[in-house]
From TrEMBL:
<keyword id="KW-0808">Transferase</keyword>
<dbReference type="InterPro" id="IPR011009">
    <property type="entry name" value="Kinase-like_dom_sf"/>
</dbReference>
<dbReference type="GO" id="GO:0016740">
    <property type="term" value="F:transferase activity"/>
</dbReference>
<protein>
    <submittedName>
        <fullName>Aminoglycoside phosphotransferase</fullName>
    </submittedName>
</protein>
Length: 286
């Protein structure tokens, strides 16, 4: 699944197991504070493995509960998921944490782009039957805000360092009329691969967008962070998909903008990676 960065299992004075997870949370799932807890790279570097259970903090209890419940009801076809686990009290969230079964595989799309897109198609075919939850239109966290900005539903406070690139993308932006559904908006690093194993989808990030937008985000991530002809060759050459790519670029640029504006200004060092993708879009859409 995700590689452990360190190990710990000793209960500290503040009720944490190895300073990683509250002992009361482990107890809610029937685990002992003496069980070893290991941090994982996934889940925003906040996930913790204890035995065959992976714990992850829930930033929004309503959203986390809905995600766990929805995943538990999926009929899988050609992919795996990390099965959600209820607590001993029958809840999906306890003290701000969720739990899922550990699942084998390695995250990382490089070398798996075709398989990743195929998994996206299978996953979203099944998600197309899921009704949109009310909270999707009410979220105010930065990922939700930059998603709306990419679709021109809200205005973002662009920084001087990012606004010139945003303007180029908005000049390419045209309206789209596509059906929306529940999608996983961050699949690139959240599908696990392994020899002899079906791909596994983890860390569900729900949005209400066209299914193909999830693929556009995958391919934009490839252009931004990996590059190469292998990515470009997978891009559908249609005006509709080009518009989805523009929105995907704005989504990722907006996320970088908000991270720099509110958390980590040093992340603006990543801006040059956008120039290659923006250049490709400009050249291929005019």
């Amino acid at each position: 699944m995700r590689l452990p960065m360190a190990h710990g299992g000793r209960q500290s004075m503040d009720g944490l197991v190895g300073d990683l997870i509250p002992s009361a949370v482990q107890a809610a799932w029937g685990l002992s504070a003496d069980d070893t807890a290991s941090p994982l790279n996934g889940g925003g570097n906040r996930s913790v493995r204890v035995g065959d259970v992976v714990f992850k903090p829930a930033d929004d209890i309503v959203e986390a509960t809905w995600c766990q419940e929805s995943l538990s009801q999926l009929v899988l076809d050609g992919f795996r998921i990390a099965d959600p686990v209820r607590s001993l009290h029958g809840r999906w969230v306890e003290s701000g944490w969720t739990a899922s079964r550990w699942i084998e595989g390695v995250a990382g799309p490089d070398g798996h782009w075709g398989q990743l897109l195929e998994t996206s198609a299978r996953f979203h075919q099944i998600l197309s039957r899921v009704e949109p939850p009310p909270f999707l239109g009410q979220r105010t966290h930065r990922w939700a805000v930059v998603d709306r900005a990419a679709w021109r539903e809200v205005r973002l406070e662009w920084l001087p360092a990012t606004i010139s690139r945003a303007r180029i993308l908005y000049e390419l932006w045209e309206p789209l009329d596509l059906p929306a559904q529940v999608i996983h908006g961050d699949l690139s690093g959240n599908v696990l691969f392994g020899e002899g194993l079906m791909p596994a989808v983890i860390d569900f990030s729900p949005y209400w967008r066209p299914a193909a937008f999830a693929d556009a985000v995958i391919l934009m991530d490839g252009m931004l962070w990996f590059g190469g002809d292998a990515i470009v060759s997978l891009i559908p050459r249609t005006s509709t998909f080009s518009q989805l790519l523009v929105r995907a670029a704005l989504f990722r640029l907006g996320a970088l903008n908000e991270r720099a504006r509110t958390v980590d200004p040093a992340c603006l060092d990543e801006l040059p990676t956008f120039d290659r993708a923006i250049g490709w879009l400009t050249e291929n859409m005019r």
